[in-house]
Design a protein that fits this description.
Layout lengths: L22 H52 L1 H4 L4 H10 L7 E6 L2 E5 L12 H8 L9 E6 L2 E11 L6 E9 L1 H36 L1 H12 L16 H46 L6 H30 L9 E4 H12 L6 E6 L4 E4 L1 H17 L6 E9 L2 E8 L31 H11 L3 E5 L6 E8 L11 H4 L16
Parallel strand pairs: 7-9
Antiparallel strand pairs: 1-2, 1-5, 3-4, 4-5, 6-8, 9-10, 10-12, 11-12
Helix pairs in contact: 1-5, 7-8, 9-10, 10-11
């Protein structure tokens, strides 16, 4: 059995699914790990501080006891204390701290100890007694530490002698770390229990919060599972004002773009399949019936096939243009001299048919637009007007700025548009009932509508009282400072301009 790159097995079985850990679990595990680490560091720091404070407290008590005994030994002659024994006896009669054990040694042997009750029996520790007995008489006073049967003991030993007396004494003050360590251990256990409880609360709270924060992602996953190439309408509910909500909005915007792209693609395929089927059928039928031995038949079929191929080429070009009109880069805005634009279009349109062409209202302004696309739209309207008029009819181009709107229109004196066709002609392949026998794919006005929509505007039909029709591009107008774009030489060759505004377009 082998496995291909996609992870499928050729033996019929399914590849085992990889064990995955959800984002929610990973977030919670990370939070708990960081919280536990922080609590551990805090607990260790607390224990070290407490241990240090315990040592400092015991050392201060031991130092105080040693200093007090040294003052007593210095004042012994004045108090009538004439030997080492009486000095040590007087020292043990003074009250000591509860956790301090006092002991007096004479010639290295314990003679006097703190009366019971006391924390521990220091005189029973042989190793400690041997160490104290071995201290020389000139040993300086300092705090020492030793491990005993009742734990670590810190002690201080003060040597004492009386002039003229042979014996020497040792004053010992000792304190065990065991009680303080036990209290510290109890505090540490309590801290650990509290920390464990806090981690449980953090875990529960983190699970709930992570679930709420990741809810848009779960909805995104659910929506992605529902979305197919046949249904892109599903959207994720937007709630909140955080980064995940911004992601939700971004994904919804992406779905909008995908839906528009798929709709455009599907529309293109439907339109192409619908409109190309007829000319292909015509071409196939004539080729099947072609008599190759008849030159006249070959010439006739060839002319028909070329005509149908030209029509299919025009149809495909129009469909591609309609598909492109929904792309964000379909128009490229730049300053456009509107007056020069109208005269330029007029010069191109006058070659379409033998009509009375004129610009009836010019605009002395510069606007932000795509000059090429506007030229394309106005020429399409002009071509549409030429195909619905007769020689001698008027086709007028004009423009005006009304408030924040730019109006560009093409008016003709033809038969006009029937009321029942006024809406249908703007649909794809929609044609008026009066166009029978005239060429055209029925996409012209759809292309004009797409160009207008790409500029943020629309195209409309105005039916004047006189015969004819007037198609108007209504676009947002943003005036560009600085005047025209420099076409002064071209204006000297323009046709005369009438100073009237097109029917139905007066501000």
């Amino acid at each position: 059995m082998t496995t291909d790159r996609g992870g499928r097995r050729d033996g019929g079985g399914e590849a085992p699914r990889r064990l995955t850990i959800g984002v929610r679990e990973r977030i919670l595990a990370t939070v708990l790990l960081l919280a536990a680490l922080g609590m551990t560091v805090a607990g260790v720091a607390f224990a070290l501080v407490e241990q240090r404070q315990l040592l400092d407290h015991l050392d201060s008590e031991l130092t105080a006891e040693a200093s007090s005994f040294e003052r007593l030994a210095a004042e012994a002659p004045g108090r009538g204390l004439t030997d080492v024994g009486t000095i040590l006896q007087a020292a043990l009669q003074r009250p000591a701290q509860a956790d301090i054990v006092i002991m007096g040694m004479i010639d290295g042997k314990p003679k006097l100890v703190t009366p019971d009750p006391r924390p521990f029996a220091i005189e029973n520790e042989r190793a400690l007694m041997a160490r104290l007995a071995a201290l020389p008489a000139s040993e300086p006073t300092r705090i020492r530490e030793m491990v005993t049967s009742f734990g670590i003991v810190r002690y201080v030993a003060v040597q004492v002698r009386v002039a003229g007396r042979p014996e020497h004494g040792t004053f010992v003050a000792a304190a065990s770390l065991a009680p303080g360590s036990a209290r510290l251990a109890a505090s540490t256990r309590e801290y650990a229990l509290v920390s464990a409880g806090a981690l449980v609360l953090v875990g529960v709270g983190g699970w709930v919060v992570a679930g709420r924060l990741l809810r848009p992602l779960r909805l995104l996953r659910t929506a992605a599972r529902r979305i197919t190439h046949e249904d892109l309408a599903a959207r994720i509910p937007v709630t909140g004002h955080d980064d995940v909500t911004d992601l939700t909005r971004t994904v919804n915007a992406m779905l909008d773009r995908l839906e528009a792209a798929f709709d455009t693609q599907q529309q293109f395929l439907d339109d192409a399949g619908h409109e190309l089927r007829t000319p292909l059928t015509i071409v196939r039928g004539h080729l099947e019936l072609l008599d190759a031995a008849d030159p006249a038949d070959v010439t006739s079929v060839r002319a028909l096939v070329m005509d149908e191929l030209d029509r299919m080429a025009r149809l495909v070009t129009d469909l591609i243009l309609l598909a492109q009109s929904r792309r964000p880069d379909f128009v490229r805005l730049a300053p456009v001299d509107l007056d020069r634009l109208l005269h330029s279009v007029l010069g191109k349109a006058s070659a379409l048919a033998d009509r009375h062409w004129l610009v009836e209202s010019a605009i002395d302004a510069v606007a932000m637009a795509d000059e090429q696309r506007l030229t394309q739209a106005i020429l399409q309207l002009a071509d549409n007007a030429a195909r619905h008029t007769e020689p001698g009819d008027v086709i007028a181009l004009g423009g005006a700025v009304v408030g924040e709107r730019l109006l560009l229109w093409v008016r003709d004196t033809g038969p006009g548009v029937a009321p029942q066709d006024a809406e249908r002609i703007f649909e794809r392949f929609g044609r008026a009932s009066t166009t029978r026998g005239r060429e055209g794919s029925g996409l012209g006005l759809s292309i004009v509508t797409g160009i207008a929509a790409a500029h943020g505007g629309r195209v409309s039909l105005r039916q004047p009282s006189a015969p004819g029709a007037c198609f108007t591009l209504e676009l947002p107008f943003v005036r560009v400072a600085g005047g025209a774009t420099g076409a002064s030489d071209e204006r000297s060759t323009r046709v005369p301009v009438r100073a009237t505004v097109g029917p139905g377009l007066r501000p």
